[in-house]
Amino acid sequence: MTDTPQNKTIQAELQAAQERSMLFARPGFLIRRLHQIHSGLFTEETKAFNITPVQYSLLTALAEHGEMDQNTLAMEIGLERTTVAEVLPRLESREFIERNQSAQDRRVKLVKLSRKGKAMVRRMEEAAQRAHDRTIEHLPAAERQLFMLQLIRLVEANNHKSVAPLRLR
User: Fold this and answer.
1) SS3 readout for 33-45
2) 148 vs 90: CA distance, rounded Å
3) Which tens digit of pLDDT belongs to each residue from 72-107?
4) Dihedral Cα 66, 71, 77, 79, nearest 10 deg
5) Distance between CA 159 and CA 81 in Å, rounded?
């Protein structure tokens, strides 16, 4: 990092933060902590719907891509297949999704949003967006897009190392 005035300010702010807590020198800790914070904000904003962040991710993936098999759905959101298999029955019991066996392969379960599921996704959009906005609202507006881009770069660069890789296009 070159010694520009902006970089010196960043270095000083980073050093001061790391003096407050040694944990602030650990990207993994900060990522996990931010995830906890976001989950709390999501729950706060969406409590009326009684939908978890994982359930919302599944519903929105189905809304975007349409019917798909459970394995593909897992890859669409970077979740382990077993977790998807545990969450889908809850969504099905609330009539947000429909699951059927594939006509081509009886071992494959196809999943699609029901009308009720589509309506739920639409009703939740604003609340979920508020949670996303609140997660990064303390960054200066000019830095929010850069922060998002940096997160995307890290996810894409390390995606192949995940136990449940995200399908990248």
Assistant:
1) HHHHHHHHHHHHH
2) 31
3) 999 999 999 999 999 999 999 999 999 999 888 888
4) 150
5) 16
Residue 97, classified by CB atoms within 10 Å of its CB into exposed (0-12), middle (13-18) or buried (19+), is: buried
Percent of the chain with pLDDT over 70: 99
Separation of alpha carbons 99 and 111, rounded Å: 5
pTM of the model: 0.88
Report all structural domains of the chain as residue ranges with CATH numbers, in order of start. 18-159 (1.10.10.10)
Q: How many CB atoms lie within 10 A of CB 104?
A: 7
22-75, pLDDT tens digit by residue?
Answer: 999 999 999 999 999 999 999 999 999 999 999 999 999 999 999 999 999 999
The position carrying tokens 């996303």 is 132
The reported pLDDT for the residue numbered 1 is: 61
Q: E strands, the chain, where?
A: 68-69, 97-101, 109-113
